[in-house]
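sorry to bug you again but im stuck and you know this stuff better than me. below you get a single protein, a line of residues and a line of whole numbers that encode the local backbone shape. mainly i need to know what kind of three dimensional shape the backbone takes. anything you notice is useful, everything is just below:

***
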Amino acid sequence: MRGDDGVGLWLAEWAERRFSDQPGVRVIADHQWTPELAEDVARAQSVLFIDCSLDTAPGSLHLKPLEPAVAGQGINTHHQNAAELLALSRDLYNSVPRNAQLLTIGAGSIEFGEAFSAAVSAALPEACRRIEETVLQLLSVPPPDPAN
């Protein structure tokens, strides 16, 4: 494992435990987002992606709405970012979630090791709170009307 790079997996495992009794919640945790996940994304009404960020201050949390990447940028067959997965869902399955959001946590260290940096460890309670709040909000959104 690479230090803070594992925070997304840790939070996904936390979310799996927290929402285990919610039939509308499915947690998929993986070290990398690969094109094979596009089908799962296409079938979802809402998606919350969680990842570390090397572009923000260590331990900082950012939650933002997400749109599919611009078409025509090619497909990376090894690793996708969240916007690219949305674009693949659109392009391959003609479907994207109605709600897509990305929660990032600024990484302090991605050196080899199993422990998180102090900044990421301190941010975990707030990250869990944001995930819980976001998922509960997404669950409260009524499903699309099939007549429309």
Observations:
- The first helix runs from residue 7 to 18.
